[in-house]
Structure formats: C-alpha cells, structure tokens
Amino acid sequence: MGLFQTWLRLRLPGFHACGLRTVHEAAVLTPPYWLAERVGLFEELWAAQVKRSASKAQEEQRTIKVSLPGGQKVDAVAWNTTPYQLAGQISSTLADTAVVAEVNGEPYDLDRPLETDSSIRFLTFDSPEGKADNPFKLRLIEEKVTGPTATVYGCGTLVDLCQGPHLRHTGQIGGLKLLTNSSSLWRSSGAPETLQRVSGISFPSAEGLWAWAAWREEAELRDHRRIGKEQELFFFHELSPGSCFFLPRGTRVYHALMAFIRAEYTCRGFLEVKTPMLFSTKLWEQSGHWEHYREDMFALQPPGPDGPASSPSDHPTLALKPMNCPAHCLMFAHRPRSWRELPLRLADFGALHRAEASGGLGGLTRLRCFQQDDAHIFCAPDQLEAEIQGCLDFLRSVYSVLGFSFRLALSTRPPGFLGESHLWDQAEHVLQQALKAFGEPWDLRPGDGAFYGPKIDVHLQDALGRPHQCGTIQLDFQLPLRFGLRYRGQAGALERPILIHRAVLGSVERMLAVLAESCGGKWPLWLSPFQVVVIPVGPEQEGYAREVQQSLQAAGLVGDLEADSGMSLSRRVRRAQLAHYNFQFVVGQKEQSRRTVNVRTRDNHRLGERSLTEAVGRLLELQNARVPNAEEML
C-alpha cells in the first residue's frame, strides 16, 4: 500500500499505461480494497492511453517508412501499425517467437504503435538481447521517474511501474523457475522496511528450461573459484580484498599465458617495457584520467621531508596506475623521435590497481589488482591500417590456440566526442576497411566508441557458449595531443603520431578464469599445472621413478611423483585421473630395467611403453607447439 501511495504523489494521471492488458480470468475473487483501487486506476490509465493513441492516429494519418531486417523497406501507418503486425507480415513463426522489437536501436513493445520512420529488428528468446535473468530491483520511484511521464504495465492483478518492454502475454512463457528468495531493505530516509528479493528466469518452452538447468549445473561444476580451490591454483584472503594469491600451480598457468604472449611479441616486433606503479596525480590530470576516472583510482599522500607531520601541500598526491597508456606516452616523449622508429610498439605487463566496489568483486573476473597484456602502438597515419590488421591477426592467432571463437564489433564516435570530425571519419573508415579485409563477421555499434577515439571490441565464446569481452583495439587522438607527442617526419617537419591501445588477453587473471571454466580444469598440456605424474608399481621402483621425475623437470615440464605405498596401483592411477594429469608414467620392474615408461592419458587411454628420452622429448615438442590435444598426439 505504501508503494501505491508513492505513485499517487507522482501524479499518476500523467503516466502512460501500456503493454499487457488486465486478464480478468486470473483476477483474485475478492481482492483487498487497495488492490481493487490499483487495478481500477490502471484500467482508467489504459483507457486514456487507447483514446490518446486513437486520437493521434486520426489526427496525423500519415505514412511512415520502416526498414526491416535484410534491408527490405515497407510502408506503415503512424500511431497505428505495430511491430507485431510487421512481424506477422514476415512470417507467423517470427510473430509467435518474437519477444520484443528493437526500433531505431531502442527496445520497444511489440504491440506499441510506431510513431515515425523506423529501422526495426525483432528479438527472439535466442537473441542475446532477448534473454533476461534479472533480480527483483528495489528503487525509489523518484529515482526511476525523472520526467513528466512514465510507463505502467498491468497483468492480472499485477500493476507495475516499469520501463519495459514486456512480453505480449504470459502465454509466451513455457517454463519458469524461481532462483533465489532473500531478504532486502527498502532504501529510505526513515526506518528501513524489510522486503523480499526474488529472482527467476523464464523460457518459451519447458525443454528450454531443462536445457538451461543442465547448462547451469555444468557451469557451476566449472566455476573457476571451485577449480582454483580443488586444484590449489589460487585463493583469496580478507586481508587483501580484491587481490589474488597465486599458489605454485596457478603461477605456472599464469606464467605460461604470459610466455605465450611474449613469444608473439618477439615475432611481431613489440618491445616489452617496465614502468613505475606510482605516479603523481599531475600525470593523471594531464592525461584526463583524474577528471574522468578519479573515483576508480587508489590515491595516497606520502610523508613529506619532515615526516608524516608535514603539511600535505609540501608534497604531491600520488596514485597507483589503473592503466599504462600515460606512462608509455612519457616513454615516447622522453627523447626526440624519428619517423624511422615508427611504428613503435610498447608492451607492458605491469600490475594495475583499480578501486572496484566491494560488491562488484568476483573471483578472478573482477579484481582491484591485476595485470594485462597491455600494449600501445605509436604510428604514422599512413601506417594505421597495416597496424590494425596486425592487431586483428594477433587476436586471431592467440584465440585460435586458446580454442575460442570470437566476434568483433566496431564502435563509432559517441555524442560529445573529442577531436576533429575529419579525423574520426578517417579513423572509422580505416577500421572498417581493416575489418572487411580481415574476413571475420563484425557488427557496427554507432555511438559506442570511447570519447577519445573509435574502437574494436572483441567478444569471445567459451566452451559453454558464454560471451566474454577480453580483447580490444582502440584508437586515441587525445593522448598524443595532451602529451604533445611529436616525431620528425620524412620531410623534416614535426608530425603527431596516432596511438593504438591494444590488448588480446585483456586481464591475465580474467583470461585464466575463462580458460579454467572453458576446459573444466582439464588443462591443455602447454598450460597444465598437472602435466605428468610418475607412478612406481612398488617401493623397489621408487628410485627410478624419481629419476624420471627429475628428467621431466630438467626439460622444463611439470613432473610429480605418486609413491604412496599404502595405496594400490589402481587407486593411485585413478587418483591421478581425477586430478586431471595429462599423462601418467607408470614404471615397474620391466620399465626400470629398460629405462622406459608406460604411458597412460587422463582419459585412461593406454599408449604403451616408450623410451624415457623419447617420451620426454615428445612432450617437450607438444608443449612448445601449444597443441590443444597432446593426449592424442603423443
């Protein structure tokens, strides 16, 4: 009832009522008076809305042009034709499966009449934008309604103030599952009121719900936090919130990823550098980050020359770096540069710190301290297209090895962009040409670019089909300007370079989490912290087993020893399989006498007896080749 009274304060007669009609058959037989009052008010609003729409249609009576998916254009009637009617003209299947429309880039109810010339596409449950899994949101209505009108939906006895859009009717829901039910507090200036937060998910069919439930169970089994704990890769501690402690096995995976990128850097002409972690805030003021990013940075006041008692004005405020680009600009500017040095590709694995809210932290996917495979390319304008193509090829090479498919999106200038329009035109054209030449599918996202330049975002898919944004390629016109970067051109005049921000893995920690969940803890050999376990048949072979282990370690491979004499051979083999060791080297009396090993894979495929030298050499070859299926290739 308190919520209903709040609506009255917000002048309900000015609201738009739209969306789902009241279903009287589902009404409560004897509703409480306040519910009857609420439903009655909604009916009044609905009738007024229908009358307004009919009046608009009668007054204007004009034809509008609608662009359909695929480029087809059709005529429609303003304030009369709805997206649902247009979907029915395309096919009855589309009309039945569409959940909402997207009109001129904005979500739109299927039964809401079109008002002007429009570009329209239809979102089904299979569309990424058509899916929803949202918790119950508690917001003060004053926060939601900032203009003179708002949108109210009705369905049965439910009347809801909601931005929408909604489904046309509840018959489109074939499967529904409640996920969580927890206590929450209504935010108000007075005494807090306890409410219940309920979250759920729905599907157009029961089969869809069953498939999702199975997928969710698999996703929980693959949760990187669970894998990290079981495999002793990393842990978190309350004394360092938002940071990760990598244990020896996790550090092995971390270093293998970095070594992979470093090898690519060597082949592609990148120069690795190290930059300070702490900078005066004057640097961040010059770069613009202090103005736009200050709340996400860790700042500190160092002691002055007279110790902590000195005045803060005697020494500058320092801040931990949240990104590397300003430091790389200082590197470019520290001495005169020539066109012969371009493109200059600087790479940096330095630790970054960002003041993430405690509620946003989640395992390795969002941390306060992390590292990126961060690189910045300073190039001349005529080198830009080749550099972008090189960045795209870098992405494809790395993601191919990691086993990820990906999709690209070009984000163009946003409102309030900085810089000259002709530079943006040129840069966006170069990015489009590079994407076309690259040959992979990509989407155009008008207005989603950064304020300092257009960008290409990279969305990869893991083994469960989940999207992750990791890599990015961004053009920047502003930092070279802010730092006064110049190089001596071929004609002898000073010219300004273009800066490309580029990351492939993105956060190394986040990529490690994505890989852990994608492989379910069954790491490919080159990344694996569980490459080989040596298992002696009996105590007499333990000495030889240690020799085998030392041979593996000397070659740079991970070799562990399983010599628990209190456990049977079959149980030790089974434990190694459950631990996801890529290979087991079983050694008995015969293997000891012949200096061989008997090889099994984690899937219990018996590869037979191999010379120790041959087996170690072949494993080293497979590791260096970074193959995804070494177990099939040994």
Give the termini distance in whole angstroms.
70 Å
Rg from alpha-carbon coordinates: 31 Å
Secondary structure tally: strands: 31
Main sheet summary: 9 strands, mixed
Helix content: 25-40%
Into which percentage range does the β-strand content fall? Answer: 25-35%
Q: State mean pLDDT (0 to 100 scale).
A: 85
Which overall shape is indicated by the principal axes computed on the Cα atoms?
A: globular
Structural class: alpha+beta
User: How many helical elements?
Assistant: 20
* Spans where pLDDT lies below 50 across 5 or more residues: 1-28, 133-138
Topology:
Layout: H1 2-9, E1 16-17, H2 33-60, E2 63-67, E3 73-77, H3 83-90, H4 92-97, E4 98-103, E5 106-108, E6 118-124, H5 141-144, E7 151-155, E8 158-161, E9 175-186, E10 193-203, H6 206-221, H7 224-230, E11 234-235, E12 245-246, H8 248-268, E13 271-272, E14 278-280, H9 281-287, H10 289-293, E15 299-300, E16 318-320, H11 325-333, E17 344-348, E18 351-353, E19 369-379, H12 384-402, E20 405-411, H13 421-438, E21 442-445, E22 455-461, E23 467-476, H14 478-482, E24 487-488, E25 494-495, E26 498-507, H15 508-519, E27 532-536, H16 542-554, E28 559-561, H17 569-578, E29 583-587, H18 589-594, E30 596-601, E31 606-611, H19 612-625, H20 630-633
Parallel strand pairs: 1-7, 2-6, 13-17, 20-21, 27-28, 27-29
Antiparallel strand pairs: 2-3, 4-5, 4-6, 7-8, 9-10, 11-12, 14-16, 15-16, 17-19, 18-19, 19-26, 20-22, 22-23, 23-26, 24-25, 29-30, 30-31
Helix pairs in contact: 7-15, 12-13
